[in-house]
Amino acid sequence: MASFRIRQYRDQDYEAVRSLFARGLLEHVPATYRFLLRTARAQLVLLVLFAAVRAAAGSWLLGLAAVALAMAVAWPMVHSVCLTYVQNALNTDLCDIESSYMRAPDSCFWVAEAGGAVVGMVAVAPPQNPADRGVALELLRMSVSKDFRGRGVSRALCGEVLRFARARGYGAVVLSTSMVQVVAQRLYESHGFRKVGITGLSPLGDLLCIQIFRYRCDLPGGTADPPR
Question: Which of 40, 79, 170, 205 could cross-link 210 (Cys pair, CB 3.0–4.6 Å)?
Fold first, then answer.
């Protein structure tokens, strides 16, 4: 098992971090596409499409061709949703990591380093949800290189975020992860996170049945209730 160390982000990590994040997110496109095709909504749409074309054209072959075309069209739509999410991150907080995380209050950014290369990353910052502000911090941008998954890197990065939040007296850590990131969900649940909600990613994402799971981990000794 290769060794690694967790350290705070440095300016020279910039390109490696952005590349790792983009690769990690886009790796989920095939799983998201497969998830879409297994949903009851998608299967009903394909069935209705097949039946309508077969009835109109009187041909099983054309009905199957229509279904194949619809499935082919769905792939670039799923890819577009994921790519838009990645580009938004690269153009916002990951555009100026130093300002977004290293100089901002109650924020930080860590990388996992092995053999002089960045193999993992995670960030923490005040949450976007106003209801969580002041009582929780948000775990963000977790990603680990494919070659280093299953080696404890994600667990170590998650632990850094929890320790950071506890040290500052926060009562909880929140995060979001997609419905297809099952391994990540198990990791978070093993750290005490529980699922507290489901949201959409975007209007197109909602159409494609892409769901975002919200998780929360309550921390012992922190302030769990919002300030009065």
Answer: 205
